Amino acid sequence: MINKLAASELVLNPDGSVYHLNILPEDLADKIILVGDPDRVPKVSKYFDTVEVKKNKREFYTETGTLRGERITVMSTGISTGNIDIVMNELDALVNIDLKKKEFKSEHKSLNLFRLGTCGSVNPEIEVDNLMISENVVGLDGLLHFYPDYHFENEFSKNFLAGFPYQKIKEMLYFGEWSKKNAELFSDAKYIGNTATFPGFYAPQGRQLRLRSLDDQFLETLNDLGISNFEMETSAIYGLSKLLGHEATTIACVIANRRRGEFSADHQKAEKMMIEWVLERIIK
Ligand code: R1P
Ligand code: URA
Q1: What residue owns the CA closest to ligand 1's atom 5?
Q2: A biological process (GO) annotation for this entry (predicted)?
Q3: Three-class SS of residue 144?
Q4: 121-151, pLDDT tens digit by residue?
């Protein structure tokens, strides 16, 4: 195995920080909250007792501090699995690669990742402004096919593939699941379900403004195959966590019910409830 990484492969800033996240190894806690929206970062860190690091570049905003004596990081990823590819690889490099020597470390460190996102439900029974934990995920974004060592299947994935009718898209599907180690933290969640991650918000999620999407039954078909909700990051977070040896769980507030055509009347309130609910459970 090649162990010394070229400057073009592991790209660093002049201060030695990783290229996009713009942080150094000491800026990162082992427990990390990932949020899509950069504006959600201070909404999380306002609950911290101390904040020692505040850094940013592009859409990647990081704050690290302590809560009830435990070190914790909150970081924004921006939208979509393309960004998650950057976030996951650079987070892993920060803990598992010696950035000065550009060599892999002999000891592996596992990070504990919690995505706090928003999502749209495709089950008419799932009420907006409640929380959904992603137990299984199907990726329709294709990212993990660029990592040939990735393979994941379970009962959910087998049943989903057997029933999936869109032949052109079937080839790009891949699957993942939540961190079983963290599952008990969230056992009292209102909804624990199966998430579909898409490479877009409009036609990929069946929305039609001036352009048509695949078909008018898209939401119903996916719901019949066991999907509860749609969003744009979890497949890559779960897939890359499995490959790199990290624990990951997605918690999202349902802000849209796509089958009923409803959108949250106050999604800021739902977001606040999610942040408090998660912090209560991940830091005792
Ligand atoms: C789309 O509006 C964005 O919202 C959801 C989707 O996954 C996508 O990133 O998550 P966040 O609220 O975390 O960004
Ligand atoms: N985020 C998404 O990706 N889709 C929705 O419908 C709502 C939030």
Answers
A1: 118
A2: purine nucleoside catabolic process
A3: helix
A4: 999 999 999 999 999 999 999 999 999 999 9
* Residue 44 contacts residue 116 (beta carbons within 8 Å): yes
Four-way CATH pick for 25-282: 2.60.120.1060, 3.40.50.150, 3.40.50.1580, 3.40.630.180: 3.40.50.1580
Does the pLDDT value for residue 92 go beyond 90?
Answer: yes
Q: Are 240 and 84 in contact (CB under 8 A)?
A: yes
- Using DSSP's 3-state secondary structure scheme, residue 104 falls into strand
Question: Residue 277 above 90 pLDDT?
Answer: yes
The model carries a pTM of: 0.98
Asked if residue 136 has its Cβ within 6 Å of ligand 1, the reply is no
Which helix H or strand E contains 87, and what residues bound it? helix 81-96
| Sequential DSSP letters for 68-82 | TTEEEEEEE--SSHH
DSSP per position, 168-196: HHHTT-EEEE--TTTGGGGTT-SEEEEEE
Q: 80 C-alpha to center of ligand 1: Å?
A: 8
Average pLDDT, the chain: 97
Q: How far is CA 176 from the centre of its chain?
A: 12
Ligand 2 pocket residues where CB is under 6 Å: 118-120, 201, 205, 230-232, 255-256
CB atoms under 10 Å from CB of 194, counted, come to: 23
Query: How far is it, in rounded angstroms, from Cα 240 to Cα 227?
Result: 21
Centroid of ligand 2 to alpha carbon of 39 (angstroms): 17
> Residue type for 146, please?
F
| Residue count of the chain | 284
List the residue whose alpha carbon is closest to atom 3 of ligand 2: 231
Secondary structure class of 14 (helix, strand, coil): coil
Domain segments of the chain: what residues? 25-282
